[in-house]
Design a protein that fits this description.
The structure is a homodimer. Chain A is of the alpha+beta class. The first copy, chain A, has two domains: 285 residues, no CATH class; 137 residues, 3-Layer(aba) Sandwich (Rossmann fold), CATH 3.40.50. In chain A, 30% of the residues lie in helices and 25% in strands. Chain A has eight helices and 21 strands. In chain A, the strands form four sheets. In chain A, strands 4, 5, 6, 7, 8, 11, 12 and 13 form an eight-stranded mixed beta sheet that branches. In chain A, helix 1 crosses helix 8 and helix 5 packs across helix 8. In chain A, 51% of the residues are buried. Chains A, B: This is Glutamate/cysteine ligase.
Chain lengths: 436, 436
């Protein structure tokens, strides 16, 4: 089952998908040369929006938390990609410590950790899960929403290494665990805890990939140059796969400082979008998304259709915008062109999410939301989306089929997601303290 | 549908599979470190024999010709592995020329070429098929057994490069084709043609991987050291996955020279096997396979159960043994411990063949033969086998399942096939003229 694309205006997108199909060897060759210069992140997921006239990434997650939503039929694809990724970070080692998020009560998230660990185990790693949550003081078996057990063990710091102590769980005796690398599945929204500072082990992704230092605008700056080069390669309008954006610093929603900057940027962005909509005959109303420049989980996100929408926010809206995950305060925002999602299934809107390991697309899923509009962010807390696993991998276009045949739409998703992945690689290279 | 293992004596094998499952992280880690020192061939297939008490490779093909027999459900796995392989040989190029075998009348083989080209196209390469057959003097569209078209173009040598000339096929205008690399799917049984000598393009596999220079005994010499190290790692008897072998040079079946060497080696091998059979309580009769040390396609192969079998061969048997593919004369033979195949399906014997690209297992199939015995080679000309694609990939053991559950049997196949692949990597390294 694949969501329908419910828009009359899919001319530009069909021609975009068509030019991707025709240029496939050129595209893959271009990616290959890019990966010679830029090391792909260990893993990533990219949220896409498909407006029929435009297909663009709106968020790139370097600590993906939905491995449980991937199609189990393609598990072997993830395993093979994990083998490639593992060979790069720790060819000579076999132990890997995973550090998940601290919110251990989200049993769906726990299922993601089970699945991620499973992929890495199948890739031949000896995997254990080490928690840095203050609640986990001894080895604890938690249960996922579907009844799978997950053993979390408290991480112990010895000198500059993270270890797990020897433990006895039921009848099983676990030995002490000292791994070559530590895989973070924790986006560090709450800052970098001391226990993770100055480790001699290889931390993947690096600490500066966490939200305590990462900025969405740095990512989309890098995406600008990637999208420009790719669009020149294909001879297409870059706007078809790149959303406009602006930033405002020094925002304090509660103290109402920065409102003018925000309103001005919103206005100029809406103006630019209007011109493009006119060029392509799009009749929808332009909108922008205002969100925290650092952070995740769809908190601190607003859909805005007029500069007035950001002036004189009421207390509730200001509270909503001012704090994101882990109580992190919002002081910088990114104002990003909103991309309608015109994919829907049974009247619910759907947004594709593409998963990658190293530089390989391993699958993806749709976030399907019944309670949300086509101009709203679907990765929001509270209102649970229903995941719908991609029924085909994103790597096998059917060149004989129509541009919008499922495998071809998925191929286009894989290409755009890899463009965002490449932007993340460049972003991380630029943010690496060693390069500064 | 998976063949049954029809033997009462599968104790040693079950314990072998079990130790592989338990040691999975250790095994994968060991492979990873091996691949740091030894470059995997671009592609390979390995014929295995599963006797229930023993699981061993009996032939490693560096020019695999059965890509059409793989399960189409796992095509994406081949594509991803091909991406890895291509990145190693030609990261900066996008064109690849495939040179297939000259026997253009085997419409099943042609189907293999279509599938191989398809995998490489899906991996993003610009692929064309160049023939070195004297019959192909102009671009020729052939048809596979199932009606797929395959365009063969005559290869043109310009200086030290192989190219394809510009051509017009129907309404399609093909431009001149100059590729970074040339992929051989031709095992050079008939010797190395002049047109392939001293090319400046990257030839994959290298010319010395062809049967005009390769020797099975060099491969199994390398396999001896691989199997020894692996068996020490697992603490198992190396014999459980390694067939004994000997060689005789200076054989002339027609002039009846070399018979004494052959009979003596047959006798000593049978003796060694007998001792092992007694050790493991195997009641079958030991046998050996006598085959050409260079060459392929199951010509020049004999099942031998007594030294007398190789003395006083009649004219027909001598003729059969003396010449293999492309009229190549047999002067050296390898005498290899025969491994019974106790896998069968509907009363037909079955032999697994595992396919790999770079160092990744991408799938495999069973050769299913109704007209052959459990002690005969199943890759023989004339008597067509029926391919039965593996229904699962070889990379996903089910550690909770019984050792002989299908995914676990397949995992063991993948491990043993990779041992043979590693032996091929070492063999090629040793045979590389640059290392001599």
């Amino acid at each position: 089952m694949v969501p329908h694309l419910t828009t009359a205006l899919n001319g530009p997108l069909l021609s975009l998908e068509k030019s991707m199909l025709n240029a496939m060897p050129k595209i893959e060759h271009w990616f290959r040369t890019q990966w010679l210069d830029h090391a792909a992140p260990f893993y990533a997921s990219v949220d896409l929006r498909n407006a029929g006239f435009k297909l663009a990434p709106v968020d790139t997650n370097l600590f993906p938390g939905g491995f449980n939503n991937l199609n189990p039929d393609f598990l072997h694809l993830s395993v093979q990609a994990a083998m490639v990724a593992v060979e790069k970070i720790c060819p000579e080692a076999s132990r890997l410590l995973i550090i998940p998020e601290n919110h251990t009560r989200n049993t769906y998230y726990l299922r993601n950790v089970v699945e991620l660990a499973n992929i890495l185990k199948q890739a031949g790693m000896d995997v254990r899960i080490g928690s840095i949550s203050p609640e986990i003081t001894e080895p604890t078996v938690l249960e996922t929403h579907d009844g799978q057990p997950l053993l979390l063990e408290p991480v112990v710091r010895e000198g500059n290494r993270l270890k797990l102590a020897a433990a006895k769980i039921g009848d099983t005796q676990l030995s002490e665990f000292d791994s070559c690398a530590v895989l973070l599945n924790n986006d560090l929204s709450g800052g970098i805890p001391d226990i993770l500072q100055n480790l001699e082990q290889n931390l993947i992704p690096p600490l500066y990939a966490g939200w305590s230092t990462r900025r969405k605008s740095q990512h989309f700056d890098a995406y600008n140059s990637v999208a420009r080069e790719f669009s020149e390669l294909l001879g297409i309008d870059e706007w078809l796969l790149n959303p406009y954006f602006e930033t405002c610093g020094e925002i304090d929603f509660n103290a109402r400082t920065g409102e003018d900057c925000l309103a001005a940027k919103v206005e100029s962005l809406l103006e630019k979008i209007k011109i493009k909509y006119a060029e392509y005959g799009v009749t929808q109303e332009p909108f922008v998304i205002v969100k925290a420049n650092a952070g995740t989980y769809g908190m601190g996100i607003m859909t805005v259709k007029s500069p007035d929408d950001v002036r004189g926010l009421n207390r509730k809206a200001r509270n909503k915008m001012s704090v994101i995950k882990e109580g992190l305060e919002v002081t910088e925002v990114i104002i990003q062109e909103g991309v309608y999602t015109f994919e829907s299934i049974n009247d619910a809107v759907a947004e594709p999410v593409v998963y990658m390991m190293d530089h390989y697309v391993i699958g993806g899923f749709y976030r399907v939301h019944t309670g949300r509009g086509i101009d709203e962010n679907l990765n929001a807390p509270g209102s649970h989306f229903v995941p719908l696993a991609f029924e085909k991998p994103c790597t096998l276009p059917d060149c004989a089929g129509s541009p919008d045949a499922t495998p071809n739409r998925f191929y286009a998703y894989g290409v755009v997601a890899r463009l965002a992945l490449l932007a993340a690689a460049i972003e991380l290279q630029e943010q690496d303290p060693l390069n500064q």
